[in-house]
Specification:
single chain, globular, A/G_cyclase, adenylate cyclase activity, Adenylate cyclase, Nucleotide_cyclase
Length: about 220
């Protein structure tokens, strides 16, 4: 057992790691309507802008272990042995939430459709194994636990039915909230979150947190 799992080079088909994992999923809302637009070139520009910049935000972390695109969703999975790791990853969700304001301003300026997203983040101890066929070079890591599945599900909750875009599992929230309070002593960060309960997923929290300096720059016309 270990709190951190290594990079791909250390994985074999005969070993596995049981460790803390955090997953972030960023899912486009109402994507079927967007993808069904007859102007495919317009849709392609929107999707490229969303995916490229979201990946850029998510990939910049030494604990990153997997990143990719699943249909209309960008996801990243990290090893997260320390509470501070959870705070740094939560900060990424705040940046993505703010970036979407910038992206939609740019899309509107080019007569392209706005997009909405849901962002899900979840943490748990997972068994990570390598599965596939060694002799044909087809293999992938498999995450056996709750973090990846729940982050994916939570991303489908965000920005829907009146719920805020950011959704955090209780385990993620419990890990990063003290750091968020420390960084925002003049505010009351716990009041930024709404608590929810789902029979299958348990307690989770929603929020609509943005990075104020980034947002001010957007409101000022995104000038250098």
């Amino acid at each position: 057992m270990t709190n951190r799992f290594p990079n791909d080079d250390s994985f074999t088909f005969s070993n596995g790691y049981y460790c803390w994992v955090t997953a972030i999923f960023v899912d486009i809302r109402n994507s079927s309507a967007l993808f069904g637009d007859e102007d495919k070139e317009k849709v392609a520009k929107v999707i490229k802008s969303f995916t490229s910049e979201t990946i850029e935000i998510l990939r910049n972390n030494d604990n990153l272990r997997e990143i990719g695109i699943r249909g209309d969703c960008v996801y990243a999975i990290y090893t997260s042995p320390m509470k501070r790791d959870e705070y740094e990853l939560a900060e990424k969700t705040f940046y993505i939430n703010t970036f979407m304001k910038m992206l939609n301003e740019l899309l509107l300026g080019r007569n392209l459709p706005e997009i909405k997203i849901g962002i899900g983040m979840s943490t748990s101890k997972e068994l990570v194994i390598k599965a596939g066929r060694k002799d044909v070079g087809i293999n992938s890591k498999v995450w056996i636990g709750k973090a990846v599945a729940r982050a994916s599900k939570f991303s489908s909750f965000g920005n829907k039915n009146g719920i805020a875009p950011l959704i955090f599992s209780k385990s993620s929230y419990d890990q990063f909230i003290s750091f968020l309070e420390e960084k925002n002593r003049k505010s009351k960060p716990k009041e930024w979150f709404n608590k929810h309960y789902d029979e299958q997923l348990g307690t989770y929290y929603s929020a609509n947190i943005i990075k104020t300096e980034f947002n001010s720059w957007i409101l000022d016309g995104m000038k250098d």
